[in-house]
Amino acid sequence: MFGTESSLSMFLNTLTPKFYVALTGTSSLISGLILIFEWWYFRKYGTSFIEQVSVSHLRPLLGGVDTSSPSNTSASNGDADSSRQSVSECKVWRNPLNLFRGAEYNRYTWVTGREPLTYYDMNLSAQDHQTFFTCDSDHLRPADAIMQKAWRERNPQARITAAHEALDLEECATAYVLLAEEEATTIVEAEKLFKQALKVGEICYRRSQQLQHHGAQYEAQHRRDTNVLVYIKRRLAMCSRKLGRTREAIKMMRDLMKEFPLLSMFNIHENLLESLLELQNYADVQAVLAKYDDISLPKSATICYTAALLKARAVSDKFSPEAASRRGLSTAEMNAVEAIHRAVEFNPHVPKYLLEMKSLILPPEHILKRGDSEAIAYTFFHLQHWKRVEGALNLLHCTWEGTFRMIPYPLEKGHLFYPYPVCTETADRELLPTVFHEVSVYPKKELPFFILFTAGLCSFTAMLALLTHQFPELMGVFAKAFLSTLFAPLNFIMEKVESILPSSLWHQLTRI
Hints:
Layout: H1 2-14, H2 17-45, H3 49-61, H4 77-83, E1 92-94, H5 101-112, H6 119-133, H7 142-150, H8 156-169, H9 173-182, H10 187-211, H11 216-242, H12 246-259, H13 268-278, H14 282-292, H15 301-313, H16 321-327, H17 331-346, H18 350-354, E2 366-368, H19 372-388, H20 392-399, H21 403-406, H22 424-431, H23 449-470, H24 472-500, H25 503-511
Antiparallel strand pairs: 1-2
Helix pairs in contact: 2-23, 2-24, 7-8, 8-9, 9-10, 10-11, 11-12, 12-13, 13-14, 14-15, 15-17, 23-24
């Protein structure tokens, strides 16, 4: 034992400062080369080479399975091709499930003192109302002329007063609509006003329908009256849904979609999907998805996550991460995981709300597809449907983060959909009340551990090489002290073993 210590001490004493310079310089060079290779591989493939080798070759030997890797992506090529069409990156859409200002949004303000809607969001609604509910010939009818000004008013009380003035002159469908949206304090009151609006709206619609081909002015009136009628019927269906008459609401929505099949801009099918899920009528939900989850139609969080929910429903009640890691994923489980990955790539903000990792707020009146605003609007109405399916949230929890390992790097490349718009965060900050809500941002792809490790190792060894070159004697003392400290536990153990074992046995072991 003492011979070993003396040999080690003699070896350390014979090392010159040049040796330490060469050692640290060589280590720095090797770690630098590893860092360069790792960085190049990460920039090209989006993952660490060392981690990829360990996952692909070492983990299977240990009995693990990577549940986040897709087995077949060819089925989604149609989505990828169609999604890369030239579209407006940050087009804002009317929220298909937006709440009632008087009966719901204002109640929140009365209780909390907070404004749930931003000025930008309400301004977009004002523009929508002017587009859908007015036309150039409104000045010919006194009530419509008043309502044309009312929709431009910023003060809510001024709008309500103008609507009452219009009704004092004559029956006006849009005046009833405004009162139902903003003055009614309950859904029951809103429904009564919408029913009155429906009677007037149907009369106006039939009248303009007969005159629509008599000139551009009549065509504009008919288009306006059509928009008003569709809006009223859709809101009546939403009132029925909120009041618990779900089957009645579904019938109204189906009739509306049959009567006006070309008005897809209202996205009535999303209201229908939510109502069908409430009744747990999954066969009809699948039938609606088969029609609207098409490569030629724009996607939404409702479409993608409802499709994922249906596939998760088939396997989620028996899904276990431990069992899946032992035996691998079945075909049905793989389909469910792929559907979740597809949904998460479309809108990555939804899972944190569904898993209640982030607090919900009231949904805005407008949403940005793939943005935080759409995630809030979807989860606000669909969280209960995910909770109702046993194990669905558990399956989502186990698999959703794997999506970001699949998307090519840099993120602008996309995977199943067109690249994630870079302006989404900015638009969401305009739509959402950032005073009491922290806007979600697209999950950034973090650098793999081994890239950070090799970068640190390279920097550390390079610093050691520089210090050893500048202060060779001092660094030599530090190196000897470090090695002595490093071997101190080993020396302590050897001394203990030597004190316990007989001297003759220890002599034989050292000779061996």
